Amino acid sequence: MFPYPSGTLHLGHLRVYTISDVLARFKQMQGYDVIHPIGWDAFGLPAENAAIERGIHPRAWTLSNITGMKKQMMAMGGRWDWDREILTCEPEFYKHTQRIFLMLYKRGLAYQAESLVNYDPVDKTVLANEQVDSDGCSWRSGAKVERKMLKQWFLKIKEFQKPLFEDLDILAKNGKWPERVLAMQKNWLGRSEGVKLQFEVQSKTGLMHPGLVEVFTTRADTLFGVQYIALSLNHPIAQMAAEKDRSLRAFLGRAQGLPPDSKEGYLLPNLSVRDPLARIMDGRTEPIPIYVAPYVLDDYGSGAVMGVPGHDSRDHAFWRANADNAPIKQVITLERGVPEPLVSGSENDKPMLTKGFVSNNIKNFSGLSSDEAVNEIVKLLREAGVSIEKTENWRLRDWLVSRQRYWGTPIPIIHCRSCGSVPVPEKDLPVELPRISNKKFAQLKGGNPLSEASEWKKTTCPQCGSDAERETDTMDTFMDSSWYFFRFLDPKNQMDLVNPSAANAGMPVDVYVGGVEHAILHLLYARFISKFLATTSAWPSGGGPENRGEPFKRLITQGMVHGKTYSDPETGRFLRPEEVDLRNPASPLIKTNGRTANISFEKMSKSKHNGVDPGATITQYGADVTRAHMLFQAPVSDVLEWDATKLTGVQRWLSRVIRLSKGFFIPKNIPEDFIPPYDLDIQLPDLLSQLVARKLMTPAKQPHPNKPWPSEEAAMIGAMKESEMLLWTKTQETIASVTKSYSETYSLNTIVSDLMTLTNLIWDTPHASRLTCYLQYQATAHLLRMLAPIAPAVAEEGWELLHEKVGTVIESDSAHPLRLKGGPSIFAHGFPTADMSILPALKQTLMCVVQIDGKKKFQVEIRKPAADVKPSDLEGHIFSKLLETEKGKEWLEKGTGKLWKNSGTNVPHEECPWIPKGHRSIVVKDGKLVNIVCPERGQRTMGGMEANAKAWDEQKASAAVDFNPAQASIPRTNTSKASPSKVSPPKASPQKVSPPKVSPPTASPLKEKDPDLVEVQHPVTKEIIPTVNSYGQLQMGPRILSQTELDIVGENPAKKRER
Questions:
Q1: How many other C-beta atoms lie within 10 A of the C-beta of residue 149?
Q2: Of the CATH numbers 3.30.450.20, 3.40.50.1000, 3.40.50.970, 3.90.740.10, which one belongs to the domain with range 192-393?
Q3: How far is CA 845 from its chain centroid?
Q4: Which residues, in sequence order, are CB contacts of 32 under 8 Å at separation 6+?
Q5: What is this structure's pTM?
Q6: Is the dihedral of CA 176, 182, 185, 186 positive or negative?
Q7: CATH architecture of 844-958
Q8: Among 1001, 1016, 854, which Cα is nearest to 921's?
Q9: How far is residue 376 CA from its own chain's centroid?
Q10: Could you read off the pLDDT of 686-707 as tens digits, one per residue?
């Protein structure tokens, strides 16, 4: 971690630090040698400005902030390598930043030059292009940036532009870096392939010496449609013309303040360019006008572009703004052989932006595809003597690193009148900042204090010994953050920035966690400096040939944290929380007027009154609850909408974990001989073998006299209850899922969800045998170990509580690894590993859906019946396994189950004793579906049930015994009002189903097609209908009709009115 010491932590800090701490703890538990360091990006303008405002030194302000932030970080339960702590404002660190600058300088990659730069009038310093936003404002102060010609220091990042671009493919592999970050870097590097060619300048007056204008274009196929040339404000031809043109000088002065996308332009009245196509084509003699335009960048190509309004949106807008209604040439068409259209000056005309075919009116080129046309143009113009070549152009510009402020790393250069710029000898590093009094800072109004530090500036030239002056600019703070991760590997090294062996062993960084706002600035500069260091002795291996000097393997960009925001629905004014009555959080009322306030989640800011103090949250709920909630509420990369009212849910869960850790599942008579396994990751067969050896469980008897168990392992597993197999299976599956989320997908929110589910399963598992408590112990131990990276304090406490109950037994075994006295932390026991090999033997289960009268009541996972089970035994197997589950007991337990209570009898069915007399059970699909059919309410007496049973037996005898519902399915009935014809019975109308007009029962079309189909009569209308279950499949046997079916046949008056 490498925070800027602003003074206080906010929830954004807390989120990123929680993520990194969780991942570091997980890897440590897996046995990796993990470096999770902390440092401070301590230089920068905010500290200097704050010092000026308060009349104190920026160093004192910075160190005070660091002290406060360290206390807050300690409170959040994080674990960092504080012995590797670094501060960029300490000479011990910036000595090596200066060394890197000198390494670049000696390689010709650092230079000083006069350049038109971005100047921040508020902070009184220059800015790199990357530090100016799309509106032309400073990224730091928000001031409108001015353009000034100043002498500045640059680093030749353009020398590395190709590997910076191409090696993004390394980072994209296997999704290691987010797509949007890769796209942002590619766009900023801005590689484009095209053609560079020259236009010959013509002067009407002869006062200017004709010259050449070089342009770069990615669409040379549109050269036939060039209608103007546009020059940047500082192009040499524009500056030369301004010497004789007062109006142009005025325009150039005014244009400095225009936005970069301005469509204003100035037509150079006496200059034009000759169409280069005139050398190879007839009729191209018309001169092409030249404009000076603010939208043309000085450093794009050569500061000149060719304007093709018919095929470029920006050129189109400029031409419309400056050439009135002059026609626009479109020379590329979507289809081959289309004549060249001239677009009128109407408001609806639009440029054709895609590649296509040269229009039919362009002689010698008509019908060529865009790519073919480019090749032909380049070939013919080159043969005609025109300077033209295919080339690449890049948006990236050299990195401007000098700043005119005090609080930064001094640039180690000495200026000598005789020798010029001379690097400071390495033996004289660091060049330290001069001490400036608090009083001096109180008097500063901005600008660069170093330029006024006369004693500090005075020095001698290292080469000739004559009087000289130090460079008074300091480095961009992004220079410090471009290499700090190397220093973490060797923070005490006085001689080198890092020992090469430490760099080879520790680089690249395995996981980097940071906001997407660093995508262009910090990450791009860090990649540049790392690739440079990989060409030096500092990092000889560069991470290997497959890494090519990339500093960060995996990049995780966390989303922002938004706060709950209240506003007045009429005025839009943001409200403070104390201005709102929050007794009903879902409908907050404004106290002054009683209106319901609007609720939204916005980026936290003072103006919106939605900031949250993480310290107060930690004090109220605890660090572990805050951390777990932070992870649970949203995926890592998504915006987190912070709602403190939801913290209580996580709080209740962690409280349950603590109660679970007290081992309530170990019966009172067991602790004396309950010995946790030596191996926390013991596999199930080994655990069962130990319990069998200790006579705490007995293998199951063989299922059939002539079919013994295939192995001793199978016999032991056969003795397990359904709930026990489910608990072991879900525990192992959770370990596998959580491990993958920690190490591959980084879906930390699903980890919390999975652990909550496992907690509830352990809690709800019934005590079925002596094995149960061992399985619950193992599951709880695994739960705590999986929880430890997220909630370390709760996990440690739970670990101690879990073993207090059986502590006496453990303490009596001097070799047991879980001994409490002086025993190791939960983190010393490692992360659990999943026992997946046994799951196929345990997962001989099926999901059984239980219905009553065709309506689903519950579903549970039960043991599958044997493949050779007899149909007569299937029902008994399914009901016996259902009664081993909690839901099964809730509904089917004789005397207490809901089914029995509603039946009005305790007399069991003669053939199916698991259900009341008069009821019937239907088990289909090998036990995946059980439907219990109740008698009609009027028959729920002893006599009525007997009559109902008799009717059932008669119908059952006449029905097809081997009916397979899976082979006879019909679509689920659609009862929507939009298509009433689909929900009516075959050949029936609403008039025919009303009671006064009952028709005698006749076989339905379905019955005629399938004689084995069992049908029933509606009790009121006597209409024949097929019976269907909730899956839309035909089902054998009568039962109470569902409300949907009553709607179908018209017995619901409300539905009848709707139709």
A1: 11
A2: 3.90.740.10
A3: 36
A4: none
A5: 0.77
A6: positive
A7: Roll (3.10)
A8: 854
A9: 47
A10: 999 999 998 889 998 876 666 6
